[in-house]
Design brief:
Elements lengths: L2 H26 L6 H17 L23 E3 L9 E2 L2 H15 L6 E8 L2 E8 L2 E7 L5 E3 L2 H5 L17 E10 L1 H13 L8 H9 L4 H5 L3 E8 L10 H10 L7 E3 H13 L12 E5 L1 H14 L7 E8 L2 H7 L1 E2 L2 E2 L2 E5 L3 E14 L5 E12 L2 E7 L3 H7 L6 E6 L6 E5 L24 E3 L6 E3 L5 H12 L11 H9 L6 H4 L4 H5 L6 H13 L2 E2 L1 H7 L7 H11 L2 H6 L2 H6 L5 H11 L2 H12 L3 E2 L14 E5 L6 H10 L3 E3 L8 E4 L5 H9 L2 E3 L1 H8 L1
Parallel strand pairs: 2-14, 9-10, 22-23, 24-25, 24-26, 26-27
Antiparallel strand pairs: 1-6, 3-10, 3-11, 4-5, 4-7, 7-8, 11-14, 12-13, 15-16, 15-18, 16-17, 18-19, 20-21
Helix pairs in contact: 1-2, 9-10, 13-14, 18-19
Bound molecules: 2-(butylsulfanyl)adenosine (IVH).
Length: 694
């Protein structure tokens, strides 16, 4: 053999070997060679490619990490939208689901369900063109995602190319979840800690943060995995069932959880649960074909018991009608398939001890008690503090320092103390009372009759000033993106700023006096303060931090008054006349503007060059002049939708009344939907809404 031909053969052999060892290491957890031996194979391949660049195969493992970081992620529309799942929380809900499926199919026959764990990571779509991995797209809003191809290519378990047999497929899209195994997450956090880098709260956040790295070299160092569970667009592939699809995916070398018959799954799961051995091999045949909803419910219960022993975090199971023909017949309702259901698990609880209760002071002067607890794992996350909200809450739960408590965390929600175990209360534990004076400035705190919150009434309290400034610069307010919470604290502590308008007087020299600020960073900060001057009236009103004036109210005030000047002059009557503005809100607005200091501050802000972009309002759109209320979960953020509605000349209402023209209702819409039905208000789903505003 000639030397080039020999090199080529060796290259193919090395690629084959590396793939073989990758599979043993990542999928079977049974490596046959040491890391060093593996690295040698990799280095040999790299050498061949460097000597003869024409030999670099597109699917070579060396091609997983490109050289250059990206500036930003490009967006791309999904060929087929990536939708959501309906949620169930108990067997009764699941029975009802089965009933709807049967009704939809017009048959009482037993339905076959493909059941699998609901993986707690982030959804991803892989796009193979002619057998090559050509794109990886995040879910985004379901319709448009971000291309994170370079980062996803670093996931060693994903084939860069499909086997020969499948390379004729012009387009093959497959979806799944990107996640981090629990063990890899722990190791990553240890590494991050040692390197003085930030640690992640849970595997999901670590996976999401890694996928969003603009530098693929960083992503490559993160132990990401992906498990596939659904087809995207697969125009040239004929498949009849979900189980067939998954077995084809596995044949293609794509990682997907193996599937058993329910009987075999049950046997294996029960044996696994019985074995007491600490070193038991992870249980990974986690999907099952269930005949009828009863089996599917047993599957759900078994997975719930296996949950803590699984290598990754899950938050439930997913049941899918196995037959694709039946799926098609059932179709979709709003954003969810009628043929699938998520069986969610109850949030996780843990017990720990309250070591202290501290009091924080917020933007509005509110004194918030926070329980500091012995760190405890709840649903894979270490929890060490929980808000106790206010004195009433403390009284109601009767939480005391030294108490043993039950903590709960539901999804991403902030941990909460749900109950005190009074049998474990130390004799010395006394009821906790909020202080009579602000813990930050020492001025008297007061509790208004009929309100639950105790407040520091000193408008110049350093805590109030600091929190107000944080709000002012935040993303949805003035959006000074280079000023984070830490910097604001530093600036306030250094007496550089006290009021909002002080920000606009800052010079680069001022910023250079702060610790860790250099030429470049101070320039960036000044530039971002400057850029924030281009704002909008609603954002400006919101940023002032007037009590009860959230984004929605700010939007309404802006459209009613048109300028800060006329808003300042508004009296109680004018304000309460506006639909959606109640007496409490009106009073708070009038009170804020009655303070000469506040008015002076606003003048200073306006004189510092803040300008309001007038969003062009289309007067002749289909919905101009109409009032639309938005509720439920929708493919776009609630605020974005409201901004969009306002930009079309309509009003975004906050509650349903006779004056409401439409209710745009997403998933899990609640009382607003009932109210609209009661009043005969026209109800739109997302598709109908898009149709209307088209
Ligand atoms: S199927 C039409 N299967 O759940 C819905 N989704 O609530 C197709 N998820 O965004 C999704 N595990 O990120 C499916 N085994 C599984 C899943 C799963 C987790 C996530 C997915 C999706 C969300 C929907």
């Amino acid at each position: 053999m000639s030397k080039p031909a020999k090199n080529e053969a060796r290259r193919d052999e090395l690629i084959e070997l590396i793939r073989y060892h990758d599979n043993l290491y990542y999928n079977a957890d049974t490596p046959e060679i040491t890391d060093r031996e593996y690295d040698k194979l990799y280095a040999e391949l790299k050498k061949i490619e460097e000597d003869q660049p024409s030999l670099v195969r597109e699917d070579s493992p060396t091609q997983r990490v490109p050289g250059q970081p990206l500036d930003k992620f490009e967006k791309q529309t999904h060929t087929l939208p990536m939708l959501s799942l309906q949620n169930s929380f108990d067997a009764e809900d699941l029975m009802a689901f089965d009933g709807r499926v049967k009704k939809g199919l017009g048959s009482e026959d037993v339905v076959e369900y493909y059941c699998e764990p609901k993986l707690d990571g982030l959804a991803m779509e892989l796009i193979y063109r002619n057998g090559r991995l050509s794109g990886a797209l995040t879910r985004g809003d379901g319709y448009e995602g971000e291309l994170v191809t370079e980062n996803v290519k670093t996931i060693r378990t994903l084939p860069l190319a499909l086997p020969e047999k499948w390379q004729h497929l012009e387009l093959f899209e497959i979806r799944g979840e990107v996640l981090m195994l629990k063990k890899d997450f722990g190791a990553l956090n240890d590494l991050q800690q040692d390197a003085g880098q930030k640690t992640f709260a849970n595997p999901r956040n670590a996976a999401a943060g890694s996928i969003r790295q603009l530098d693929p070299a960083i992503a490559a160092g993160r132990p990401l995995r992906m498990f596939c569970y659904a087809p995207g667009s697969t125009p040239n592939l004929s498949v009849e069932t979900q189980s067939e699809f998954i077995s084809i995916a596995r044949e293609m070398g794509l990682p997907a959880l193996a599937c058993l018959s329910f009987a075999d799954f049950k046997k294996a799961a029960e044996a696994f649960l019985k074995s007491k051995s600490k070193t038991k091999k992870p249980f990974t045949n986690l999907s099952a074909i269930c005949s009828g909803i009863e089996e599917a419910i047993s599957y759900y219960e078994l997975i719930q018991r296996l949950r803590h022993d699984l290598p990754f975090e899950i938050d439930g199971v997913v049941m899918k009608v196995n037959s694709y023909a039946a799926q098609e017949e059932l179709g979709f309702v709003s954003r969810c398939p009628r043929w699938a259901m998520a069986g969610k698990f109850e949030p996780e609880k843990a017990t720990t001890q309250v070591e202290d209760i501290i009091v924080q002071v917020g933007r509005t002067g509110a004194l918030t008690p926070v329980a500091i607890m012995k760190p405890v794992q709840v649903g894979g996350v270490t929890v060490s503090n929980a808000t106790l909200h206010n004195q009433d809450e403390i009284d109601r739960k009767d939480v005391r320092i030294g108490d043993t408590v039950w903590v709960q965390r539901a999804g991403d929600v902030i941990p909460e103390i749900i109950e005190v175990d009074k049998s474990k209360r130390p004799k010395s534990a006394k009821p906790f009372l909020l202080p009579e004076n602000c813990p930050v400035c020492g001025e008297p705190a007061e509790k208004v009759e009929g309100e639950v919150v105790t407040r520091c009434t000193n408008p110049t309290c350093p805590a109030v000033v600091r929190e107000g400034l944080k709000h002012f610069v935040s993303k949805r307010a003035m959006n000074v993106d280079k000023l984070g919470d830490k910097l604001i604290e530093q600036m306030v502590d250094a007496d550089l700023i006290e009021t909002f308008s002080d920000l606009y007087k800052l010079t680069q020299k001022d910023i250079l006096t702060l610790e860790r600020q250099g030429k470049k960073s101070s320039e960036n900060i000044i530039a971002s303060i400057e850029a924030s001057k281009k704002s909008t009236l609603p954002k400006f009103i919101y940023s002032l931090g007037i009590r009860f004036v959230g984004e929605q109210t700010a939007r309404i005030l802006a459209s009613e008054f048109g300028s800060v000047e006329s808003l300042q002059e508004a009296n109680l009557d004018q304000l309460t006349e506006i639909n959606d503005i109640g007496p409490k809100v009106a009073e708070s607005i009038v009170k804020a503007f009655s303070k000469p200091k506040f008015r002076k501050e606003i003048n200073k802000l306006l004189n510092s060059g803040i300008e309001f972009e007038t969003t062009e309002v289309k007067q002749n759109s289909q919905i101009s002049g109409k009032t639309i209320v938005v509720t439920g979960t929708l493919p776009m953020g609630r605020n974005e939708i409201k901004d969009y509605i306002t930009s079309l000349g309509a009003k975004a209402g906050s509650s349903v009344s006779k004056k409401t023209d439409y209710l745009l209702a997403g998933d899990s819409a609640g009382s607003k939907l009932d109210k609209a039905q009661e009043l005969g208000v026209e109800i739109l789903n997302w598709e109908q809404f898009l149709e209307l505003v088209k």
